[in-house]
Every structure is written in structure tokens, then in C-alpha cells.
Amino acid sequence: MLDKQLVYDVLTAALSTGGDLAEIFMENTVRDSITMTNGLIEKANWGMDYGLGLRIITGTNAVYAYTNNTSRASLLKLATDAAQAVKASLRGEINIKGVITLDRSERLRYADTMVIPPEKVAKKDIVERLRAASKAAYAYDALITQTSNAYSAVVQDVFIANSNGLWAEDRRVNTRVFIQSVASQGNEKQTGSESPGAKCGYEFVDSLDMEALGKKSATVAVTMLKADYAPSGKMPVIIDNAFGGVIFHEACAHSLEATGVAKGASVFCGKMGEKIAADCVNAVDDGTLSGEWGSLNIDDEGGKPRRTTLIENGVLKSYLVDYLNGLKMNMPSTGSGRRQNYRFAPTSRMTNTYILSGPDKVEEIIADTPDALYAKQMGGGSVDPASGEFNFAVLEGYMIRGGKIAEPVRGATLIGKGHEVLMNIDRVADNFAAAQGMCGSLSGAVPTNVGQPMIRVKEMIVGGRN
Question: Which has more pLDDT, 464 or 325?
Fold first, then answer.
């Protein structure tokens, strides 16, 4: 994406006042989306994001600058200005880095495995598929009063080089659909939604049963519309698989990111090798899984992603570490440096973060639970990574009575602290599934997978109206 001589000159200028490492991140991203309401096209967007970010690291501090003007004069000025900011922060003798050697050692093209590039797809085909989901939702029940469906494809070409000799290129393709139904009766409204995605081309959409997705979203909306309100208080909670993993992601895994750990702003600081969860809990972050929503060929610092064991038999085994925070913690990077785009400096982020399958059967967990709340589908919430305190909405819930799934309930909220929930998990099923989301943090929003099998928490605080 850039001439080798220009890259060399920019990195050299960036280190001219004594920085330890200079890094270029350049991207050209194309976004294509269609949004539909009630079976009619509401908007169709196409856009491009192009620019370059330059980071200079000195010790455990960094200066970051960016531009979308990649002419030689502009980039050299950017590098010189950033270098002056580094100079102003230094005290004492300035050591100028020696010769920079650039190797084209990493030329990764994920697009080589893509079957149907998004730009080759006729918009008519996308519209017909979204409309099929809408029709199926309306056909399910007369209580469905609105559908909102969307398609999104993002193709990001990135180039990363640094003064340690890294030269890396990659193409990332993420495709996703959003299917939502609204059921209404009087002043009451409830929603159901499905939003599958993958790191691949339009072949992913071809593999989906859009009618089934539309019907499923409608089923949840109608069921919750007819449901009574959930009880409140402390009780056992069974959390289903797939997006149920959002609680581990938000309330626990964010606190394992070096972004907070390096500052001492995490409940898990200094807990490496200690027991932080029940024996039945095993969790990983794995950015190497083929075709998964959060996977990467290289992270946004040019590092290799890997399968990182976070928790093994309840014991904390690793944090998620990026390069800069690794310097602060005296730990190597786990290939976890990520950013939304060139406007953000990278920091430690999740990729595909899961609680692994356990030995139990779903039917056994339910049958062995006399009374509980069954959170079949989780929604959004909020969390404080420093304390682990969280609250999450339950989009689809049921009561467990006498070891059987009973009446549906709505309006439930799960409240607690992540580290306490980890300790209170006493059953883990073997029905692992993943779900897709966009995770926001200091370096913007990035695609991440959450996931888990069904788990049982022996006691949680449930907020409800009854």
C-alpha cells in the first residue's frame, strides 16, 4: 500500500528524536450496507475509510498521530511532528535508533479463501433475502407489527510496518445480517432479534435460512409480549449457550485485558496462577479459528493471534496483552492488539472469547434444578471492569419449576459481580455455541465472538417487577 522507501523514510523520521519503536498502520476499508423496515428499503449505504496512523513508543509511553493524506510530504511532516512530541517528553540524553531493516516477511491475504466477494453481489439478491425474513416474521403471528432487517459487509485492507523490521499485509472481510421483529399489543411492545455474522464473503449469507431467522425473531417477540413479569430476588440462574457468553465477555474477560490490568484497574490484578472461578470453568480467547467473526490473520500491531487459555479448571492462566501494555507488565504480547481503524492507537482486546464445554447434558441441568430463572437469550448491559459489577437484561426468559421449563417471563435483569459469578458456576453443559457482536473499548469497536455452553449459577441477584 506504500512504497518501501517512503515507509523507511517515515519510520526513520519518527525515530529522529529518540523513540524506541515506530509503527505504521494503514488501511483502506469499504463498507456496504442495506437497511430494510417492514419489507421496504430504508437506506443503502456505501462508503470508504482510508488513512494512516503512526505510533512512536518510548519506554512505556507512546505518541499517536494519524492522517488520511498519505502523500510523501504529508507523511514526513506527520512523522516529524510526532517525533517532536516524543522529544518534548524525554528527559536527559536522547538515543537515536540505528539502521531500520524492513522485511516483507508477512504477506497474508485472507481474501484468498473468500468464495463470493461482497462487491460481486447484486443488490437485488440481498434485498430479496432480507424481505424473505420479513415476510416470515409477519406470517408467524398477527401481533408482529414491525420488522427491521439489515445486511452489512466490511472489507478492510491493512498494511503494518515497524522499525523492528515488520512488514505485514492483510485483507479482512466481515459479513453479517440483522433480523428483528417487534410484537405489539396496546401500549406493550417486545422485540426478538437474530444477528449472525462471519469472517467471510457473501457465501455466509447464502448459507443462512432467512425465513427461519425471521420466524425465530418473531417467536421470541410474541412469546415475551404474552409473558408475565419476572420475579426478583436471589435465586439459581441457568444461562443458555451462544450469546449467554456476553456476561463472561463483559463482566469477566474485559477485566483480563491488559488495558486495565497494566494500570491496576482490574479486579483480577495480581491474580495470575490463583483460583478465580469454580473448578468446572475453562475459558479461552482464540483468534485463530477459521471463518469466525472475531478471528484475525494478524492483529493490528502485526502480531500473530493465538489460542490463549485464560482460565483452566478455575485458575487464572493468562491476561490478554498487546505490545505496549506488555512492556508495562513485562509480558509478551498474546496477539491481542486491536483497533477500530487508523484513528485509534491499538490496545489489548478480545477476539473469540469462550467458556468451553463441560461434561453435563442440558436436560440433566434443567432436571436437577428445582426452581430457577432460565435466561435463554441475553441482551445488553453495563459493567465496571475495575470492580466487575454488572447488570444485563434478559431478552427471553422462563421459570424453571420442579426441574422443568415453565412459563415465560419478561423484564428480568441479572445483577452481580463477575468474579463472584465465576465462583458460583456449578454446572457446565456440552452444548457450546457462539454468537457475534461488536465490542467497544478505548481503541473503538471491533468484531468479537462471545460464546459458552449452558451454565448454571447457583445464586444470582435477579431484578424484576414481581
Answer: 325
**Domain region containing 419:** 232-463
Q: Look up residue 56 and give its amino acid.
A: I
In the chain, the number of structural domains is 3
* Residues whose CB is less than 8 angstroms from the CB of residue 184 and which lie 6 or more positions away in sequence, other chains included: 143, 145, 146, 225
Residue 350 domain-assigned (yes or no): yes
Alpha-carbon radius of gyration of the chain: 24
Per-residue cell: 35? 437497511
pLDDT for res 102? 75
Tell me what the pLDDT averaged over the chain comes to.
94
Which DSSP symbol is given to 118?
A: G
* 71-89 mean pLDDT: 94
Same domain, residue pair 273 and 340? yes
Residue 38 falls within a domain, yes or no? no
- The answer to the question of residue 269 being in a domain is yes
If one counts every other C-beta atom within 10 angstroms of the C-beta of residue 320, the result is 28
Q: What's the average model confidence in pLDDT over 4-25?
A: 95
Q: Are 82 and 125 in the same domain?
A: no
CA–CA–CA angle 173, 44, 139 (5° rounding): 95
Q: Is the pTM of this model over 0.85?
A: yes
Q: Which helix (H) or strand (E) element contains residue 384?
A: strand 371-384
**DSSP H helical ranges for 4-63:** 4-14
Does 391 lie in the same domain as 346? yes
Same-domain status, 127 and 104: no
- What is the rounded distance in angstroms from the CA atom of residue 338 to the CA atom of residue 176? 20
CA distance 415 to 421: 10
- In contact, 437 and 352? CB cutoff 8 Å: no
Positive or negative: CA dihedral 244, 247, 252, 254? positive
| Euclidean distance between CA atoms 306 and 357, whole angstroms | 19
- Cα distance between residue 17 and residue 91, in whole Å: 12
Looking at the DSSP assignment, which residues form a beta bridge with residue 172?
156
CA–CA gap between residue 390 and residue 72 (Å, rounded) = 48
Helix, strand, coil percentages (3-state) for the chain, rounded to 5, are 25, 40, 35
State the cell numbers at 362: 442440558
